[in-house]
Write a structure and sequence with these properties.
The structure is a single chain. The protein is built from nine helices and ten strands. By secondary structure, it is of the alpha/beta class. The strands form two sheets. Strands 6-7-8-3-9-10 form a six-stranded mixed sheet. It has a four-stranded antiparallel sheet with strand order 2-1-4-5, covered by helices on one side. The protein starts with a strand and ends with a helix. Adenosine-5'-triphosphate binds next to helix 1. It comes from Fodinicurvata halophila. InterPro entries: AAA+_ATPase, ABC_transporter-like_ATP-bd, ABC_transporter-like_CS, ABC_transporter_ATP-binding, P-loop_NTPase.
C-alpha cells in the first residue's frame, strides 16, 4: 500500500549525450525492507542512485519518495533520506564529535546532543570522540560514516558498498548492526554491493542490472530456485 512505499521508481531512464545508461527501470522499496541493486561495473547502479539522491536529473520517468515527487520536492525529501559510502571522506581535521554535530545541525535534529550520545553508545564511538576523522582506521571511519548516515534517523538509507574496505570481522559486525537497526527502526535500505554473501544475508529483494536495464527480479530465494544454483554469486555470474 501507499503508506509503506519508501521509494517507487517508474520507467526511469537516463542518457548521456544520447547514449542510454539507465533504461526503463522500475522498482519499489518498502519500509523495513532491503533491496539490493546489483550489476557489473557500468551496469547503471551509480547512475540510478545518483538520480535517487537528486544529483542527476532523469531523461524520463518518475521517482516517488515517501509518497512525494522527488523531482518537485527533492530538498524536503532528502531530509528524510541519508547516504553512506566508504568512498566519501568526512572533513579530516574535524573531530568525530565535530563532524557528527555538523550533520546533526545540518539535518535540524531536534536534540543533537541526545542523538549523538545514542549513536556514540550504539557504535562505540566514545573512545574516538575527540580524534580527527583523518586519523581513524578504515573500520573506525566506517562506524563514523554510519553514524553520520543515521544521524537524522532516515526513513530511507542508501548504502553503496558499505563493507568494501573492511576486514571480515568488522564487515560481519556491520551487517549485524544494519539488520538490527532496520528491525528496530523500519528503515528502508537500498544496497549496492558486489559481495553476494552480504546480499544473501541482508537483502529481502534483489534486482540485477545489465547495460542499464533490470534483467532479474526476486527474493534471494527465488533467484536461487529459478537458476538452480546454490548461492547468489553463481546466479550473478550467470546473468550479469
Ligand atoms: P560501477 O559498479 O562501476 O559503479 P555502475 O553500475 O554504477 O558501475 P554507472 O556508473 O551507473 O554504472 O554507469 C552506467 C553507464 O553510464 C556506463 O556506461 C558509464 O560509462 C555511463 N556514464 C555514467 N556517468 C556518466 C557521465 N557523467 N557521462 C557519460 N557517461 C556516463
Amino acid at each position: 500500500s501507499e503508506s509503506v512505499e519508501a521509494i517507487r521508481v517508474q520507467a526511469l531512464s537516463k542518457s548521456f549525450n544520447g547514449t542510454p545508461a539507465v533504461k526503463d527501470v522500475n522498482f519499489s522499496l518498502h519500509r523495513g525492507e532491503t533491496l539490493a541493486l546489483l550489476g557489473a561495473n557500468g551496469a547503471g547502479k551509480t547512475t540510478t542512485i545518483s538520480m535517487l539522491l537528486g544529483l542527476l536529473l532523469p531523461t524520463s520517468g518518475s521517482i516517488t519518495v515517501l509518497g512525494g515527487d522527488m523531482l518537485r520536492h527533492r530538498y524536503r525529501l532528502l531530509q528524510r533520506m541519508n547516504f553512506s559510502s566508504p568512498y566519501v571522506d568526512l572533513p579530516r581535521r574535524l573531530s568525530v564529535r565535530q563532524n557528527l554535530m555538523f550533520f546533526a545541525r545540518l539535518y535540524g535534529c531536534p536534540d543533537p546532543k541526545a542523538r549523538l550520545e545514542e549513536l556514540a553508545h550504539d557504535l562505540d564511538l566514545g573512545p574516538l570522540w575527540r580524534k580527527p576523522t583523518g586519523k581513524l582506521s578504515s573500520g573506525q571511519k566506517t562506524r563514523v560514516s554510519l553514524a553520520k548516515a543515521l544521524i537524522n534517523a532516515p526513513e530511507i538509507l542508501l548504502l553503496d558498498e558499505p563493507t568494501a574496505s573492511l576486514d571480515p570481522d568488522t564487515a560481519d559486525w556491520l551487517r549485524g548492526y544494519l539488520q538490527d537497526y532496520q528491525r528496530r527502526s523500519g528503515t528502508a535500505i537500498l544496497l549496492a554491493s558486489h559481495n553476494m554473501s552480504e546480499v544473501e544475508r541482508l537483502a529481502h529483494q534483489v534486482r540485477i542490472m545489465r547495460a542499464g536495464e533490470i534483467v532479474e527480479t526476486g527474493t534471494p530465494r527465488e533467484l536461487l530456485d529459478r537458476h538452480g544454483r546454490g548461492n547468489l554469486e553463481q546466479v550473478f555470474l550467470d546473468i550479469a
